[in-house]
Amino acid sequence: MLKWVIDNKVNSLKNVYMLIQCTKKLLDELKVTTQEQSNENPLFSWHANIIKLGRKKTIVMVNDQTKYVIVLYGVKAKDLKNLSGLLQQSIREIFKAEGIKEEIIEQFIQKSGQASITKTKDRKSVARMNRACEDFYFMTDLIDEKSIVQVGVSMKISSLLAGAGKGTYINPNEELYKSLEEMAGQPVFHSEAAQLKVTLLLENHAVWRRITVPTNYNFKQLHKNLQIAFNWQNSHLYEFKVTSKNQHLVKIVSFKDAYHEETEIPMKMDSEVELSHCLEKSILYTYDFGDNWQHEIEVEKVFQD
Predict the structure, then answer these.
(1) Could you identify which of 10, 124, 201, 213 might form a hypothetical disulfide with 294, taking C-beta atoms 3.0 to 4.6 angstroms apart as the criterion?
(2) Is the Cβ–Cβ distance between 209 and 221 less than 8 Å?
(3) Which of 43, 45, 59 is nearest to 11 (CA)?
(4) What average pLDDT values come out for the chain (305 residues) when binned by 10 residues?
(5) What 3 state SS string does the chain have?
(6) Which class in CATH covers the domain with range 192-304?
(7) Among candidates 291, 261, 285, which has minimal Cα distance to 273?
(8) CA 7 from centroid of its chain's CA atoms
(9) pLDDT number for residue 305
(10) Helices 83-97 and 151-158, interaxial angle, to 10°?
(11) Strand partners for 238
(12) How confident is the model at residue 258, as a pLDDT?
């Protein structure tokens, strides 16, 4: 049995701020013993439930203050034993994808401390959490089967209007930005962005798009933006090739099986490489290995602030 016993006095002495308030269903899965616990700062408090999509267990968390939603998909027993660490990992990945500065993310995690587990607080919070669970079932097309932390799903749900009581509504993502700015006393967003000209290589046709993205985007995030820009359906494999002076530096792939290919070019997963590392390089994006749609990516400008 996982030994998570909550004691209010002990926790106050240890300055534990992050609170995960779980439904009975999730508490049963965690196999924990809890006592009454409260947190005066709702920014570091979450309500959490566990649901199933097919055979996959999914944890949905909602922040008490901002109503921001974090979704963990395909969790297993070993993950449940480290729910606090998994929440911290999720915060890092999702907040970074939102464009929030890394130093502010780390400040938030530092202030949060080690998570404590307790029961749900009130019906209002549970109702909001249940609504987030319902929203998740409408976002299954955004699920990343290769990751527990569902960055795209979390960001999408958190961009939807959420009830704030007395007939008012908020956007959880915007509430998050405001709350983090108040916490840190400074603007929260990563200040550097790249303007890219992306040309689809076709004979006798000039097809291109110009997009601007944060330079801290990884290539998985860049791929999603390119899919939207060219109205692709995100239904095929893809890769990026990064070159300098006609020499291949790295192949950035979207699937681990690519590592079994015989090649002298180093390979990395798309989630592991940031655009900021390739600003002065040539980038070729290939989508759908059958039709072989190739896109040449040119970094035109880099903006600060």
Answers:
(1) 201
(2) no
(3) 45
(4) 41 61 96 76 96 97 98 96 95 92 95 90 94 96 91 95 91 98 92 94 95 92 95 94 90 80 85 93 96 97 87
(5) CCCCECCHHHHHHHCCCCEEEECHHHHHHHCCECCCCCCCCHHHEEEEEEEEECCEEEEEEEECCCCCEEEEECCCHHHHCCHHHHHHHHHHHHHHHCCECHHHHHHHHHHHCCCEEEECCCHHHHHHHHHHHHHHHCCHHHCCCCCCECHHHHHHHHCCCEEEECCEEECHHHHHHHHHHHHHCCCCECCEEEEEEEEEEECCEEEEEEEEEECCCEHHHHHHHHHHHCCCCCCCCEEEEEEECCEEEEEEECCHHHHHCCCCCCEEECCCCEHHHHCCCEEEEEECCCCCEEEEEEEEEEEEC
(6) alpha beta
(7) 285
(8) 32
(9) 67
(10) 70
(11) 287
(12) 67
Domain ranges of the chain: 8-184, 192-304
The two beta strands, 192-202 and 293-304, are: antiparallel
Tokens of 293: 């749609």
Q: Which CATH architecture has domain 8-184?
A: 2-Layer Sandwich (3.30)
**Single-letter amino acid, residue 81:** K
pTM for the whole thing?
0.76
The number of residues making up the chain comes to 305
Rounded CA-CA distance 18/109 in Å is: 9
Whole-number pLDDT of residue 146: 84
Residue type for position 267 = M
Place of tokens 């983090």: 180
Asked, colleague to colleague, whether 8-184 and 192-304 share their fold, the answer is no
